[in-house]
Amino acid sequence: MTRRYSALSLLREGLNGQRGWEPAWRDPTPKAHYDAIVIGGGGHGLATAYYLAKNHGLTNVALIERGWIGGGNTGRNTTIIRSNYFFPESAAFYEFSVQLYEKLTDELNYNIMFSQRGMWTLAHDRHGLEMARRSANAMLLNGIDAEFHDGPSVYANIPGLNPNPRFPILGGVNQPRGGSARHDAVAWGYARAASALGVDIIQNCEVQGFIIEGGQVRGVETSHGTIRSDRIGMAVAGHSSVLAAKAGLRLPISSYALQAFVSEPVKPCLDTVILSPATGTYLSQSDKGELVLGAGLDLYLSYAQRGNLPWMERAAAGVLELFPQFSRMRFLRQWAGIVDVVHDSTPIIGPTSVGGLYINGGWGTGGFKAVPAGGWCLAHVMATGQSHPLASAFGLERFESGAMIDEASASGIAH
Amino acid sequence: MLLIDCPFCGPRAEIEFRCGGESHIQRPGPHTHVSDAEWADYLYYRENPKGEHRERWFHSTGCRRWFNAARDTVTHQFRVTYKMGEACPEAGESAVSETAPSAVAGGIV
Ligand SMILES: Cc1cc2nc3c(=O)[nH]c(=O)nc-3n(C[C@H](O)[C@H](O)[C@H](O)COP(=O)(O)OP(=O)(O)OC[C@H]3O[C@@H](n4cnc5c(N)ncnc54)[C@H](O)[C@@H]3O)c2cc1C
Ligand SMILES: [Zn+2]
Fold first, then answer.
1. For residue A280, what pLDDT is reported?
2. Which residues of chain B make contact with A242, given a CB cutoff of 8 A?
3. How far is CA B53 from CA A51, A180, A309, B35, B71, in A?
4. Burial class (CB in 10 A: 0-12, 13-18, 19+), A187
5. Contact assignment for A299 to B75 by CB distance below 8 Å
6. Which of A91, A168, A11 lies closest to A413 in space, CA to CA?
7. CB within 8 Å: B50 and A308
8. A 344-383 → B contacts, CB under 8 A
9. A187: helix, strand or coil
10. pTM recorded for the entire structure
11. Whose CA is nearest to atom 2 of ligand 1?
């Protein structure tokens, strides 16, 4: 029986014909009642279940996923992790997340392949340059690592950049501790660790409705029957509005398709993550050698996980603008995920107007980097009834009070 | 690529258009009587259905006029497009074939 992953267990199983590995998590039949239910088996839901058990001692917990673990946006994103935000609230929250990521492989005993290869945001005109300086200063003031570079320094740091692009590269901001992680591994690692602490991970089970009595949630109706709990958290990314409507709730959320692509794999040629707002593209190279690139949002409501051609063309053009030598590479595959966008580009974590029902959502295009902190904070509010200090500004009430945290206009974050 | 039937110009490619979000939204008033919750709803809360959505589109590189559409957010099929100020034709009213003899109210090509 091989429960712990290590160099020694690898060696042992290698000699043993790989016959001793156990399934990474149990496959239990749902019980009739749990102390807490988490809906959504993406990174946020799995992290929530794990921290409910780990930080709060709640182990009689069900995680309910309608498809398979990590089959949502957590398995569809471009895996970029960073904390280069502007407002103190967001900076503190995302920085906490990056710090949790830094320890995650050890903590979960699962290699999430977190690679802090740096994350560059390029500036292509005078305004971009001003934005870059402001962003670097804001990050430093928030205690986050940031480096401002002028054009020649960008070129010295990123080999292969087009020496003569149509949109000149005048400078950039690098967050050296930014980078990427293997997204499936993040989901699988949390699932395995949560299951080991007693959490029931129930796949292929759709939540179809809520049992609500006198304004308090009492359980869910699922494709596997009724499961009761007075404490329910939902982290269903692109489907937040659809699921919330089943509890009679309306959310300030619009759902859009966001698409990504990978090229055929090639030898290492790009050792950092690049975002170029002006050319509308972001890219990195995976450990497998594929170029991973993302496009912008299809700006009409969508629940179709496919994305559109005009954006695909724009993203490809943006990459070729930066690296003309990639023009002969082929796209291997393309896909899209549905992301929940809110007006101030800041997540929603906290209670709803239904007692006992909590939400984690509104991540827009950027919630992968937030998985550890998002799970941590949803678990906290579910277990204690109080918002975690790091997420106390992220409640639904801000849309009424006007206390928005508008990261889109402040830091130029896409979501 | 979507083919979108502008009520003024006819079917054109998606890249000529910009979507302006939910249509038929009424500003609440008089403002002295509107609660914070009602303002929040008007400013930030939108219909986000998995299914038919009534929305505004702008023919930005064509006639530069706004019009309305009923579009399915799962299939991306446009059921009908109609002019600003008009009521949305209900399903079965055959508005599609009347306004677009080519029987293309917009779809995926
Ligand atoms: C193309 C693309 C690129 C991206 N790039 C980045 C990036 O580089 N960096 C970054 O930080 N973020 C990125 N993101 C955003 C990021 O992927 C998401 O914000 C994040 O994965 C959300 O995690 P989640 O756990 O909330 O959702 P998900 O992983 O989508 O999980 C939600 C789960 O809920 C399940 N579910 C839904 N309804 C029900 C129901 N009724 N019953 C049971 N289960 C249900 C779904 O099946 C799904 O598995 C990107 C997103 C996309 C689409
Ligand atoms: Zn027109």
1. 85
2. 48, 50
3. 38, 36, 22, 27, 5
4. buried
5. no
6. A91
7. no
8. none
9. helix
10. 0.95
11. A77
